[in-house]
From TrEMBL:
GO terms for cellular component: membrane. This is Aspartyl/asparaginyl beta-hydroxylase domain-containing protein. GO terms for molecular function: dioxygenase activity. Keywords: Dioxygenase, Oxidoreductase. InterPro entries: Asp/Arg/Pro-Hydrxlase, Asp/Asn_beta-hydroxylase, IPNS-like_sf. The keyword Nucleotide-binding does not apply. Belongs to the aspartyl/asparaginyl beta-hydroxylase family. It holds the Pfam family Asp_Arg_Hydrox. PANTHER family: ASPARTATE BETA-HYDROXYLASE DOMAIN CONTAINING 2 (PTHR46332:SF5), ASPARTATE BETA-HYDROXYLASE DOMAIN-CONTAINING PROTEIN 2 (PTHR46332).
Length: 269
């Protein structure tokens, strides 16, 4: 039973009840062709993966992860100011309305740096240490602060496409840690401050923050290492994604929020 949820990369969810979650209006021929192609490519990417095919990976498979972890204190320091004003930040579904099938409240906040055709120079300028850290991530596609309020749960669902892998860098993890976790393909991981976890969101996954405090991570998608020629096809998909209706809509929503946010703060143009 598939649902379509469209974030920075269109995300196909598998959850309990079938719901038509396509954006309002008929999708363009381009979007329909794009989704058909990634359906075809998905299994081939798993077979061509240079890092294997599993729910959660070993950090040592990605040499740059250790360097990112050393920068966690500086990244967290920049996050702290945003946490204090997080009510002004956009909820995920406000940027991408189709996410409303898994979250429709104001308990999942975001602060976006980049993603499939979007690059927020203002947000990057506000967090220079984070911006420098992101420059060292090979194949970076998406990056934002992801903030879950106390008691927030994201139901079990699956991502659409394994041509990217996902990383969470723990920045603020409330206690008790065993009540704040992500489960991917049956493997449960409790975030730790300063520690990264890399996973494949094509596997069914869910998130719980069953604590009294907010949880915040740096959320990153990066290109999955693959053998040629699948590597080339994957890069074609990633380059084409920004032109889909869904991602263009998400970018427009973010741009509108950003203009309002910095106008109210009298930030830089």
């Amino acid at each position: 039973m598939d649902k379509m949820v469209h974030l920075w990369l269109p995300t196909r969810l598998s959850i309990v009840q079938p719901v038509d979650a396509r954006p309002s209006g008929k999708p363009s021929f381009y979007s329909r062709a794009f989704f058909r192609f990634i359906d075809w490519l998905r299994n081939r990417i798993a077979q061509a993966s240079l890092v294997g095919d599993r729910p959660i990976f070993q950090n040592g498979q990605f040499p740059w992860v250790a360097r990112l972890e050393t920068q966690a204190p500086a990244i967290r320091a920049e996050l702290s100011g945003l946490l204090a004003e997080r009510r002004q930040l956009p909820s995920f579904h406000e940027l991408s309305p189709d996410v409303g099938m898994i979250t429709s409240d104001d308990q999942w906040k975001t602060f976006v740096f980049m993603g499939y055709g979007l690059r927020s120079e203002r947000n990057l300028a506000r967090c220079p240490a984070t911006a420098r850290a992101l420059q060292d991530i090979p194949g970076l596609r998406t990056a934002f602060f992801s903030i879950l309020e106390p008691g927030k749960r994201i139901p079990r669902h699956t991502g659409p496409y394994n041509g990217v892998l996902r990383l969470h860098l723990g920045l603020v993890v409330p206690e008790p840690a065993d009540r704040c976790w992500i489960e991917v393909g049956g493997e449960r991981y409790s975030w730790k401050e300063g520690e990264a976890v890399v996973f494949d969101d094509l596997y069914p996954h869910e998130v719980h923050n069953d604590t009294a405090g907010p949880r915040a991570v740096l959320f990153v998608d990066f290109e999955r290492p693959c053998r040629a020629p699948i590597r080339w096809l994957n890069r074609l998909v990633l380059a084409a994604a920004p032109f889909t209706d869904e991602i263009r809509r998400g970018k427009a929503n973010h741009d509108a929020w950003e203009r309002s946010y910095y106008r109210d703060k009298k930030g830089p143009d």
